[in-house]
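Posting for a labmate who doesn't have an account.
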Amino acid sequence: MALPRLHDKFSLNRVQSFAIHASGWKEAATWRKQDAEFAESQRRGAERTMAARKDMDAKLFDAMLAKAGAHKLEQGISEKTRQQELLLNRPLVERMAQSGFKPERTVAMLKQASSHGLGA
């Protein structure tokens, strides 16, 4: 039985070492590829989630508007109802006018409320 020569043994170790390093490089490349694929799948999932959320928000907002309806000023209230609202809110309008908040509107509203009085 022949013993392996020392030179052959070192050559074998060098080849095995190279094979180990090469497999490590291949493994690292595989890991990088898998990591990139996973990151891409996560990004696509996040985009789908965001799109679904926007769609859900839009549907809920539409449902909310349908349930709540329009504000009474948008529905075309009568002049009588407008005067009642103005009379009920007269103390607030007076404070707003005294503090100088939009005088072009509050002073005119206060004059309207005063001209109709509480008995109107």
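Reply:
Got it, the structure tokens are right above this. The radius of gyration is 40 Å.
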